[in-house]
Amino acid sequence: MKIVSAEFMTGAVSSRQYPEPEWSELAFVGRSNVGKSSLINSLLNRKKLVKTSQTPGKTQEINFFKVNGDFIFADLPGYGFAKVPPAVQKRWKKMIEEYLLNRETLLAVVFIIDMRRNPSPLDLDLKNWLEACDVDYILVGTKADKLSQTELKKQGRKLNDAYFEGEEGELLIYSSKNGRGRKELWSVITALMEK
Ligand SMILES: Nc1nc2c(ncn2[C@@H]2O[C@H](COP(=O)(O)OP(=O)(O)OP(=O)(O)O)[C@@H](O)[C@H]2O)c(=O)[nH]1
Ligand SMILES: [Mg+2]
Which residues of 75-95 are buried (b: 16+ CB within 10 A; e: fewer)? Predict the structure, then answer.
């Protein structure tokens, strides 16, 4: 996909603040600090369109970006960061669920996990929840640049087993640092958009 334009639209904490439902939308979801905002920047070839941070819990609202004047990327706050007070965690969870359940223009979720981490209960909960609610998702394992080829193979197998055992589906390996998987992810996204 050639990126002609990418711009920030608005941030929202409740559905009243979402942009008008006029364009197809993809949402980027995953644990706090997993690399959601970096992945959006990498897909859009922008270094700083979306703020990234080494401090988990940076993205605290849903941020909407218009791409090529034609569709929307929504960057969701990360879940599961232990240092966020329980009340805030609860509010975020509500915010994410409200969005995923009600956003009528949502095409699919880009569900991001860390290639280096073993399958976590929180992530598997999200997977089951997405499936129960009938939300389509693409599972992406990011930060692949931090592993050797051998380790990647092993982790890839482990994660695929945990997430897709006996089912259709495959983890897409990604790195926002070196662009690995970018082409593959775009082709999955464009196929979804043309459906
Ligand atoms: N090496 C490497 N580092 C990455 C990659 N993706 C993200 N990072 C780093 O991971 C940290 C977190 O990245 P963010 O993109 O801010 O993560 P996030 O999921 O948006 O975080 P929250 O908004 O806090 O939930 C930053 O220090 C990034 O530079 C990657 O593919 N490779
Ligand atoms: Mg972020």
Answer: bbbbbbbeebeeeebeebeeb
Does the residue 1 lie in any domain? no
Nearest CA to ligand 1 atom 2: 143
Specify which residues 29 forms β-bridges with: 111
| Number of structural domains found in the chain | 1
Q: How far is the CA of 59 from the centre of ligand 2 (A)?
A: 4
Question: Does residue 120 lie within any of the structural domains?
Answer: yes
- Residue 89, domain member (yes or no): yes
> What mean pLDDT comes out for the span 125-150?
95
pLDDT tens, residue by residue, 12-50: 999 999 999 999 999 999 998 899 999 999 999 998 888
Quick one: which ligand is closest to 57's CA? Answer: 1
Q: Which residues contact 130 (CB under 8 A, 6 or more apart)?
A: 100, 109, 111, 137
How far away, in angstroms, is 32 Cα from ligand 2 center?
7
Q: Which CATH number do you get for residue 67?
A: 3.40.50.300
| Token pair 């270094």 in the structure block, residue | 47
Look up the pTM and report it: 0.94
Ligand 1 in reach of 148 Cβ (< 6 A): no
Mutate to test the pocket of ligand 1, among 29, 32, 38, 48 (most ligand atoms within 8 A of CB): 38
Q: Which residue segment(s) compose the domain that 71 sits in?
A: 6-194
pLDDT band with cut points at 50, 70 and 90 for residue 82: low
How many percent of the chain have pLDDT more than 70? Answer: 97
